Amino acid sequence: MKHVNIIIIGGGLAGLIAAHQLxxxxxxxxxxxxxxxxxxxxxxxxISNEVKEFLNKEExxxxxIGPSQITKFLLTSIKGNxxxxxxxxxxxxxxxxxxxxxxxxxxxxxxxxxxxxSQVEEVEYESNENKFVLKINKGNSFTADHVIGAFGKRxxxxxxxxxxxxxxxxxxxxVKYHIKxxxxxxxxxxxxxxxGYCGIIQVENGISNLCYLGSKEQLRHxxxxxEMEKAVLQKNPHLKNLFQNSEFIFEKPEVINxxxxxxxxxxxxxxxxxGDAAGLITxxxxxxxxxxxxxxxxxxxxxxxxxxxxSIEKQYTSQWGHLFKxxxxxxxxxxxLFGSKAISEFSVGLIKNxxxxxxxxxxxxxxxxx
Length: 370
Prior knowledge:
This protein is of the alpha/beta class. The protein folds into two domains: 2-40 and 96-168 and 260-335, FAD/NAD(P)-binding domain; 75-92 and 170-259 and 337-365, D-Amino Acid Oxidase, Chain A, domain 2, CATH 3.30.9. It has eleven helices and 17 strands. The strands form two sheets. Strands 3, 4, 5, 10, 11, 12, 13, 14 and 15 form a nine-stranded mixed beta sheet that branches. Strands 1, 2, 6, 7, 8, 9, 16 and 17 form an eight-stranded mixed beta sheet that branches. Helix 1 runs parallel beside helix 8 (288-305), helix 5 crosses helix 6 (225-231) and helix 10 (341-353) crosses helix 11 (355-365). It is globular.
């Protein structure tokens, strides 16, 4: 078995940021990713500007890709009533297809080694040897001093570790399209429908990302995604207009099942969990990508700034809890303001009539610049 100083499982934003920071500071890093770049992911594709200063400093902000600059928020109820507000901090829109590939190239250039089209199936920490043993689907194995879990919302590693959230079934599905449509490039919109909500944001090259959180029960009832969209989503006139007057670029949508917002532990089986592997913020808060970037940095910092495993875990757990635990909790509570006729009308009215309340929700689900 080949030994590596640090292995990162998963090549999304959190894994790529951690890999870049560790390799930049002289660490030997192997990142294992089950796909090959570039590829699409189900994602809202909005990044809060809380991470922009860090990205600029590390030369990881994707100027050359031309992300959209987001300054406004639009919310609609199922009936189509609207509420608008300015975003104090704002953000930018960029596709995961382009940005993950951009970060992959940056990480590879700085010395990160990649094992692509390979999937980790089991990870065990051997306390007597003070090292990890990882088994790969292709039959080979590795040992490592440190492991960072960046394997997203739900993976084979979660199952092999018997993580508690894997025992809970989830009703949520995520569906994503890229479209060409007439949409304000400075606005991120959130459109309610019965049982869920749909976000739209312009990314790069005049393309918009349309991504929604829906119900697998509704999908089962209507038989397929197009029929469900016609019967449920398009009751909102804004969504009806988008579906009927846009050019859909994908031959078929990207879909993910069993999206679970239950709390997770930031360190489990001595693995530092980053991004969605440590906890998933509800999509309506629009901060999953920013949190992933920040957690990748924090995990790298913890390894770089401490010599022993206990200190690494203590620092990462403390910082993760301070920065993200409350944000994810609020996100789960705010989710109840969406996805039904009466409550969606209330939510629109809240933003229209109480700018203070709306601003407080935004602030409590967004982080400070770092």
